[in-house]
Design goal:
This protein is mostly helical and 102 residues long. The relative contact order is 0.16. Helix 2 runs antiparallel to helix 5.
Amino acid sequence: MYGCTKRDRIKNEAIRDRMGVASVEDKMRELRLRWFGHVRRRNIEAPGRRCERLAMESLRRGRGRPNKYWGEVIRQDMALLQLTKDMTLDRSVWRSRIKVEC
């Protein structure tokens, strides 16, 4: 599409910049935060919101490093973009803040 091959030895970032395409990591972050905003704007009794209130007591974890869970990844994404949970209520502000610029 761009006319480059592996022999040209051009970094992916340089090609993405020239083509005007955002990185996959940024697009994934945008999609996760878009879904998070959708869930937060739902009614508190909606099935997705009820799962937030579940308490996982007496859950024994296995050995080794614990797996990342969705809430932890969302917290990291929000900290990176300096967002708060209250921003999800205003859809236009939320969408403008999470949008990835190419």
